[in-house]
Design a protein that fits this description.
Largest sheet: none
Oligomer: single chain
Order of helices and strands: HHHHHHHHHHHHH
CATH class of the domain at 1-95: Mainly Alpha
Structural class: mainly alpha
Number of helices: 13
Length: 206
């Protein structure tokens, strides 16, 4: 499975014009918090975690909860797991669904799968569809196939290519190859190379 948290960070950075060192935290806070987050994550990607934190701390302190989540992401990258969890919890408690997703990912990575299930579900119910994928994939790995099917389909319906590919894998397990192939095709059409490979292999079996 691809690391969904890493994918989202990379996507954010790759679609942002980074101007490291040119963003004033106070101006950023008042005028463009999302731009501030994008800049901070670009700076973090370049390895200057302390500078990234300088931009994100004022956002979190001002109760811009998405800023707390991203502050947690930077802390996690720095190896500060306790501080990361604290900021994820703060974001999630105040309605930031990406924050609930991040907290769920944290719990899964640290062995608390029951909490991960609950947090991914909360995030998915809040229309953060990457969490639907993670919930479905976690259920699939634990052979909870009905749950997996429900949440992978939610992810696939929202055009998360990994969701479609793994939904195809699940249907193939039950020998529903026509249905599996349709999901592989959708995954491939969405640009997922693994989906294209799955599609090629499925056609070879038909």
């Amino acid at each position: 499975m691809k690391n969904s948290l890493a994918i989202l960070i990379i996507f954010l950075i790759s679609n942002t014009a980074i101007s490291a060192g040119k963003t004033d935290p106070n101006k950023c806070l008042k005028n463009n918090p999302e731009g501030c987050i994008e800049t901070a994550m670009g700076i973090a990607q370049n390895g200057d975690f302390n500078k990234a934190k300088e931009l994100l701390i004022p956002l979190c302190d001002s109760k811009y909860w998405s800023g707390c989540n991203f502050l947690g992401i930077v802390e996690y990258q720095m190896g500060n797991k306790i501080d990361a969890k604290k900021h994820y919890e703060l974001a999630c408690k105040n309605g930031d669904m990406f924050g609930c997703f991040s907290l769920g990912y944290y719990e899964e990575e640290n062995g608390s799968k029951k909490f991960a299930y609950d947090l991914y579900k909360k995030s998915c119910d809040g229309k953060y569809y990457a969490a639907c994928y993670n919930l479905g994939y976690l259920a699939m790995r634990e052979a909870k196939d009905d749950m997996a099917r429900t949440y992978l389909k939610l992810a696939c319906d929202k055009e998360l290519a990994d969701g479609c590919n793994n939904l195809g894998n699940l249907e193939a397990k039950y020998k529903k190859m026509e249905l599996a192939t349709s999901y592989y095709k959708k995954s491939c059409d969405l640009g997922d190379q693994m989906g294209c490979l799955s599609l090629k292999m499925a056609k070879g079996k038909n």
